[in-house]
Amino acid sequence: MNEVYLAGRGLASALGPDLESGLTALSRGGVTPIRFEVASGFAWPYYAIADEDPDWLARAARITHRVATESGALAGPRTGPLFLGSSSLDMGVLEQHHEFRGDYQTFAETVAGWIDWRGPVFTVSTACTSGMNAVLSARMLIRHSHTDHALVLGMELRNRITVGGFGGMQLLSPTGAQPLGQARNGLVLGEAMAALHLSSQPSRWRLAGGANVVDGRDPAGTVPSAVVAMCQQALAESGLSPTDIDLIKPQAAGGLANDATEARALRQVFNPLPELVSFKAAIGHTLGAAGPAELALLDYAQDTSLNAPLAEQAPKRVRHVLASILGFGGGHTAVVLEDCGK
Q1: Eight-state DSSP code of residue 312
Q2: Are the beta carbons of 65 and 115 closer than 8 angstroms?
Q3: 317 burial class (0-12, 13-18, 19+ CB within 10 angstroms)?
């Protein structure tokens, strides 16, 4: 079977329109979230991309093209599979025009048209794990020689329905995100557009393995045994043991119960627990885009030696990284990255 590598990445987030500006903003302490007003008297902190075009569709097309270009995928043949991972998809344009018809695949094909992508198009919408499951799906096709490259897009762009829904469930922080913090009081949502170009051609980062474990016993929460199984399966597929992992990027969204549950479950697998790095205090929880967005930041930051804003103390050696996203409906998804330059 083929090995699968991360050939390129792109990201637009609250930190900036591309990865370089994003990492610069992160090194300076990040950015301040805006206040997203769903209705009069109902507003929460929100990490928004700095593009105020009122036309949702035109804004989405522009951001998508810029990020896909940054990934390098548009410089080569655009004939491989395209995976769109998102939880809200085109909800923003639907609510803008008060028209709630159409299907997921039609929108994915529209996105493909924005970047003149000519390969097969797939939609992955599994709540917060959408983007990470899209990565696993693309990896599987390359690994089994169905294609030699693929583009994964993680998209989550602003809309009132998503923010209002999380607010109605009383899951949002009124002040700010504190992933794994003692004073954490809820999530802060954000928008992101991420692109990961995967290839069978060797490059620095290899996607060594991954796992998706679904356990719906707590549809809105983290199931400890599922976190353990996710880690164990991802490690087994990668041919690694827990002691091989040098860095973990957990879900760590800032929820009171879920952060604690996740931390306890990780300690059942890893003893001692490796260094942890979190991005949700900087870009928010970007839901279906979180997997590709945080992988793009993680990979790009490693290329610059994981400087201090991403961890209080950079690990001396980072060869293997486990990155996970947990989501509604019982999704527990992880990938393992290997730095082939180490």
Answers
A1: S
A2: yes
A3: exposed
Q: Which two tokens stand for residue 95?
A: 């609510």
Please give the domain boundaries of the chain with CATH numbers for all domains. Answer: 5-199 (3.40.47.10), 205-339 (3.40.47.10)
Sign of CA dihedral 88, 138, 240, 276: negative
Across the strands, what pairs with 151?
Answer: 82, 197
Strand order in the sheet with 189-190: 34-39, 42-47, 189-190
Is residue 335 within 8 A of residue 234, CB to CB? The reply is yes
Q: Quick one: how many helices (H) and strands (E) in the chain?
A: 10, 13
Tokens of 116: 């003149």
Residue pair 9/340 in contact by the 8 Å Cβ criterion = no
Q: Count CB neighbours of 204 within 10 A.
A: 16
* SS3 track for 68-85: HHHCCHHHCCCCCCEEEE
Element (H, E) at 11: strand 5-12
Number of other residues whose CB lies within 10 A of the CB of residue 151: 28
- Spatial contact of 166 and 187, defined as CB atoms under 8 Å apart: yes
CA-based torsion, 211, 215, 219, 224: positive or negative: negative
In terms of pTM, does the model score above 0.70? yes
Q: How many CB atoms lie within 10 A of CB 205?
A: 21
> Using an 8 Å Cβ cutoff, are 273 and 283 in contact?
no
The tens digit of pLDDT for each residue in 198-211 reads 999 999 999 999 99
Which amino acid makes up residue 298?
L
Retrieve residue 194's tokens: 């991420």
pLDDT tens for residues 206-264? 999 999 999 999 888 899 999 999 999 999 999 999 999 999 999 999 998 999 999 99
